[in-house]
Amino acid sequence: MMSARKLISALTLAATMVAAAACGDKSAGETAGDSTAGRTLRVALLTPGPISDKSWNGVAYEGLLALRDSLGAQISHIQTKTPAEFEENFRQYGAQGYDLVIGNGFEYQEAAIRVAPTYPNTKYAITSGRATATNVAGFAFAFEEASYQAGMIAGATTKTNRIGLIAGQELPPVKASFDAFVAGARRMNPKVEVITSYLGNWEDVGAGKEQALAQIARGVDIIFQNADAAGLGVFQAAKEKKIYAFGTNANQNSVAPDVILGSVVIDLAKAFLQVGREVQGGTFTGRVIALGVRENIVRLELNAALADRIPAAARAASDSVGAEMHAGTFTALRTITEPAAPPPPAAR
After folding, report:
1. What pTM value is reported for the model?
2. Phi/psi at 290 (5° precision)
């Protein structure tokens, strides 16, 4: 029979071997490109507005849920109110050891660049961003491509030759999409006049409705909005005055199916999954990730319920342009680009 001393020694040795093996497994999972193999991916999302907006922030949250459901990620979300909170929460998630932190908007870029060096093991990704670092990537969505197609539909459909543009703020990606929309409209109808309004915020539904009504009073019969929750007010005005509108970011066709001709959609779930897999596999690199119609991340989704309100020739022309975009041969938007270096962020 083994003595008590020998038994204790044997058990101690066995425990040591098990611990060493466990440490060895962990080390193997955390090397080879800083992958998260063998442990749960942790992903956080910062949004500048409520995820109930049925638009920009809502579709980002759907992307976060896709990371949870497809990659088994542990997720966290917080709505930030001020630029100071951008940096505060980037630091908080970095300190907690999150693998990927996504800032949903152009305005998060500078905060990410400031914070990222302190937390090199955390990857930061900014939607509609172009600022990069070793552990910072920017999603540069070619939103202007499908916006051009939507403009073609609007230019051919308007009866008054006046279209309206309404956004929360004049951010570069928003301005680029507006310029493209107008270019598409004037391709089909050179007589088109444009009225543009910026609300100064992204959440005031009443302000969105008020501004839409003001444009309608000036003869606008189609409005292209990119205003997040405030855009819901634009749809309310369109319904009351029986004019048409376009949805943006999410497929908003079902939000007001009797007035929304179509939606310019960004498939954030697909984009988030791409980066999530890179982080999980240890292949992430800080860079600008250009995604548009060609990658089927950005697209125009027309409302089938209002298909008969759109001239067939306009739809065919828009489809033809879409095919060129998919092939990478469309060149009309080369002058409509965002600046390479972001200006100081504005609170959204």
Report:
1. 0.86
2. -85, 120
